[in-house]
């Protein structure tokens, strides 16, 4: 006991030292965060995207809690526009069977949506892209054994009827637990380029990029550069859904990052510049002041007034939403 007394007497001093060190570290991180927030934008493209995407209240049109004509929520909706001007949405809904169902819907005004086809139970996080030949390529996450599934459709009618002419279900090559949230980034002939996520260490979602050749050969690899750009903003949770958009000849990627694992109210949206490897956090301002935004995507289209516009689609989790604003938010700014 006597031998331990001096150690006991020094404990308060050690505790004070550790507390001071922790405060100093926290202050340093805060200063770094503020410096990053005040730094120049990652690129002219991310700055342009921020100018168009941050203020929902000044948008030329918007809809909170988007739903189809049967009342199904349009979660994680991605919007496209067909050659005839029809608006297309691919999205998913959690139904009474306890499964997610991906679906495709059409609209004439971006506010009212008519569901045309349900792709079945266990499908979600859908992404749609034209193939350049009048057809479409659709990708979605599929369970059980969450993986990326890719389908090809000969034309718009086939897509709306759910008649795929080619199908491929990707193997899990980066994680034995899950790979998903696909985004079709390009279709060149019989080659489909995609991005997605994989469950790193069966624990946390991280980014991947993949190529499907001839609907037979699949290659996926981690995209650690994108992970680093989002992680630099202090995100300690999942890094998930993402989608590219071309602005002024520059490609920008909208991507979600989760500040804290398991906290749906900590999701944020970032604009990533692939050239510099940097990302800017978007300060999205809604009418009610919602603070969490996930599953972002952006689409260049002609709006219902016949004007070129940028449409942004984000999911507002209940945990970070203002009253009346949870669910899928669609809004657009004329260019």
TrEMBL record:
Organism of this sequence: Streptomyces venezuelae
Key words of the record: Signal
Signal peptide: 1-37
Protein name (Swiss-Prot/TrEMBL): Glycosyl hydrolase family 43
Domain of life assignment: Bacteria
């Amino acid at each position: 006991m006597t031998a331990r007394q001096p150690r006991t007497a020094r404990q308060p001093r050690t505790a004070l030292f550790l507390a001071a060190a922790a405060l100093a570290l926290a202050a340093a991180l805060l200063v770094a965060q503020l410096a990053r927030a005040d730094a120049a934008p990652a690129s002219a493209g991310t700055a342009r995207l921020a100018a168009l995407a941050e203020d929902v209240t000044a948008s030329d049109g918007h809809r909170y809690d988007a739903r189809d004509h049967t009342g199904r929520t349009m979660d994680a909706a991605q919007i496209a526009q067909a050659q005839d001007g029809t608006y297309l949405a691919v999205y998913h809904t959690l139904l009474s069977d306890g499964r997610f169902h991906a679906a495709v819907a059409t609209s004439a005004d971006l506010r009212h949506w008519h569901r045309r086809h349900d792709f079945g139970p266990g499908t979600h996080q859908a992404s749609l892209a034209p193939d350049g030949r009048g057809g479409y390529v659709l990708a979605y996450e599929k369970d059980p054994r969450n993986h990326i599934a890719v389908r090809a459709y000969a034309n718009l009618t086939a897509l709306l009827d759910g008649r795929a002419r080619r199908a491929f279900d990707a193997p899990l090559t980066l994680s034995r637990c899950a790979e998903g949230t696909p985004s079709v980034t390009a279709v060149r002939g019989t080659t489909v380029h995609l991005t997605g996520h994989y469950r790193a260490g069966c624990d946390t979602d991280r980014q991947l990029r993949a190529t499907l050749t001839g609907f037979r050969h699949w290659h996926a690899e981690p995209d650690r550069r994108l992970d680093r750009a989002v992680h630099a903003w202090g995100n300690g949770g999942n890094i998930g859904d993402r989608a590219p958009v071309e602005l002024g000849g520059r490609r920008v990627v909208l991507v979600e990052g989760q500040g804290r694992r398991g906290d749906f109210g900590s999701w944020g949206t970032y604009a990533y510049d692939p050239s510099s490897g940097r990302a800017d956090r978007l300060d999205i301002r809604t009418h009610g002041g919602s603070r969490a935004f996930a599953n972002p995507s952006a689409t260049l289209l002609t709006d219902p007034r016949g004007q070129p516009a940028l449409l942004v689609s984000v999911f507002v989790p209940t945990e970070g939403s203002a009253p009346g604003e949870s669910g899928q938010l669609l809004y657009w700014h004329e260019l």
